[in-house]
Specification:
This protein is α+β, with helices and mostly antiparallel strands and 236 residues long. Helix content is 53%, strand content 14%. The protein folds into two domains: 155 residues, GAF domain (Beta-Lactamase, 2-Layer Sandwich), CATH 3.30.450.40; 54 residues, Orthogonal Bundle (Arc Repressor Mutant, subunit A). The radius of gyration is 24 Å and the shape is elongated.
Length: 236
Amino acid sequence: MTHEWQPAELAERTRRALGAEEDDALLSLARAAVEAGLADLAAVGRRGIDGDGPTVVGATDPLAQAIGDLEHTATGGPVRSLIDSGDDLLTIGDVATAPAWPEWSAAAAATGIRQMTAVRLHADRGTLGALLLYRTTSVPWTGPELELAKLIGVHASIVLAHADGTAHLWRAIDARNRIGQAQGILMERFSLAADTAFEVLRRYSQTTGTKLQSIADDLVRTRKLPQSDSDGPAPN
C-alpha cells in the first residue's frame, strides 16, 4: 500500500531530518518517494567534482547504490546530463534503449530496472545533485506523481543545502581557530599585540601570494613563518 504524502507531512519529515546525519536525512526522503509509490528503489546523487559521476547517498537499497555508482565507470549518464543541462526533470521510459548513454544503459538494464526519473536538486548557488527514482516495471509515471517527485526533491534540496551550509560554517570556524592559533604563536614569540600579529600574517599572505589560512596552517604546524629562514616577523 502506498502512502499519500501531504505537504505538511513532508515538511515535518524534513524538519526532523535536518537534525540527523546527512545520509540518514536523505535516506528518509528517498524512502518517502518509495512509500508514495513513486519508485521501487530511490537514492540521492550528490553532484560530482570536476565532471565526476554523482556520489550516491541515502540509497533505499544496495541496488539503488550500485545503479547510481555506474556513472563512475560508464561514459556519461543521465545524472551528469541532468546536472549539466540545468533541466529540472529527466525521465527515461525504457532504460535498455536510452540512446544517449549506451554504456550506462546496458549496465543499468542488466540490474533489472526498467525506468528512471531524476529530479534536479538545487539551491541559490546552483545544482546540488539529483533525486534518483527507479522502477522495475514499465508502468509510466503520471503527471501528479512527477509533481510529487519534484516536491520531495525540493525537500531533499533543503537538506543538501543545510548540510553544505553547516559544513561551510565548520570549515570557517576551523580556519578562524587556526588563524587565532597562529596569532598566538607570533604574540608569544615576538611580544606582539593581537592586531599586530594578524597584520604580520596578512602581509605574509600578500607578499607570498598565499592564502591567509595556508600561512596560518604552516605556522601552526612548523612554528616558522613560511619562506623564512629567520625567526623574525613578516616583512613590512
